[in-house]
Amino acid sequence: MNSVHTMNWLYEVEWELPWILFFMFAGVGLIQLFYYWVYFSRLAFYKPKSKNTYTGSVSVVISAHNEYNNLKKNLRYILTQDYHDYEVVVVDDASDDDSAHFLQQMEAKYGHLKVVTLKDSVNFFKGKKLPLSIGIKSAKSDVVLLTDADCRPAGPHWITRMADNFEGQTELVLGYGGYEVKPGLLNKLIRFDTLFAAMQYLSMALAGIPYMGVGKNLSYKKGLFYRVKGFTSHYKILSGDDDLFVNQTATKDNVAIEISPHSFTITAPTNSFKAWLNQKRKKHTTGKYYKRRHKRLLGMFSFTQFLFYPLFISTLVIGGIGMVSFMAAGVFLLRLFTQMIIFSKVTARFNERNIFPYSILFELVYPFISFIFVLASLFYSKQTWK
Question: Beta partners for 151?
């Protein structure tokens, strides 16, 4: 009798386990589909509204520490923008390379360049928050447009495209900062990572849930900066002059996005995975300071993305050839086709078509790479510019 009960119990477990795995997998898949169709599709199929031409002045603000090579390479693209009234404020934060001499030469040549020099490094704010704050306060315009010394605008209408969003209640404009196209798989992975992050924060902004922006291409009004007392709420954190500021100040009513190709900025990517890891782990230290609802929203997407493939494989292995595996394959294909549609639209929108063929592969390994970044950030304590 006991042996009969044992056999029945084993049979029930053998029958139930594949279905349990399937329902877990289907639940994860449905959550993923929800994010893609409810959130990410907003960016993929976004049709920008016609904007009024902004007529005010704009101050481009750059903070730099030992950035001579980058300033020499990129500053001229910013100083030759096709905009009727703007200045460029560069804060040289105690550089000991040839930055000061180069900036003096450029200031003599371009009347709309203002150089602010900090002779001594003051460690009140961490990283570039103090020099950036000084640059913003030194700016003459109500609208400031931020970028980094290692960035250049994609074209001469960068300022125009970003500034034209300042109408009505808009106080903050989120832009896109991409990377140069170079040979190699690492370059494609870096560009995919940048695009994937942009797809999330720009889509969420369109959904009325803005949570971050990037300092490579970010604009806001000085009044907003003063109203929240700048970076004082997170001045002890190395990063966060961009994403934490946006997370703190952005609302569904005061944010706009700009995604025309003329509005992009471009950065030269690193050539080694280790250097990229250092950049990413510093950035990951700020995520834990996001608002709780943003952390839940982002965490749910990352968690279900991480579980999707292991659950799919487990369902196929345990389920064998049968109804469970066929249904799991259906969920998998539905998500795959959804991804392909969204990724094809987003890569085309941001002129990144040549990474589309790799997007599914990168999406497969991306959760595990992100996990590495999170682990690395736990041991990151370096409190310097780079």
Answer: 267
The model's pLDDT over 311-349, given as tens digits with 9 standing for 90+, comes to 999 999 987 778 899 999 999 999 999 999 999 999 999
Residue 13 in 3-state DSSP? Answer: helix
The span from the CA of 376 to the CA of 236, in Å, is 19
- H or E stretch including 146? strand 143-146
The 10s digit of each residue's pLDDT in 196-240 is 999 999 999 999 999 999 999 999 999 999 999 988 888 777 777
Selected from 3.60.15.10, 3.10.450.50, 3.90.550.10, 3.40.1190.20, the CATH number assigned to the domain covering 58-275 reads 3.90.550.10
Show the tokens assigned to 196.
């994937």
C-beta separation of 18 from 315 below 8 A = yes
Check whether 10 has a pLDDT greater than 50. no
CA distance 128 to 132: 6
The residues that bridge with 63 in the sheet, in sequence order, are 91
User: Rounded to two decimals, what is the model's pTM?
Assistant: 0.89
**Interval 109-129 mean pLDDT:** 81
Domain ranges (residues) in the chain: 21-45+294-378, 58-275
Angle between helix 185-206 and 356-378 (nearest 10)? 80
DSSP per-residue string spanning 36-92? IIIIIHHHHT--PPP-PPP-S-EEEEEEESS-HHHHHHHHHHHHT---SSEEEEEEE
Provide the pLDDT for residue 373. Answer: 63
Contact of 51 with 173, CB cutoff 8 Å: no
CA distance 321 to 302: 30
Instruction: Mark out the alpha helices in the chain (DSSP H runs).
Output: 2-34, 41-44, 68-79, 99-109, 129-138, 158-163, 185-206, 222-227, 243-249, 273-284, 292-319, 323-349, 356-378
Q: State the sign of the Cα–Cα–Cα–Cα dihedral 142, 248, 288, 174.
A: negative
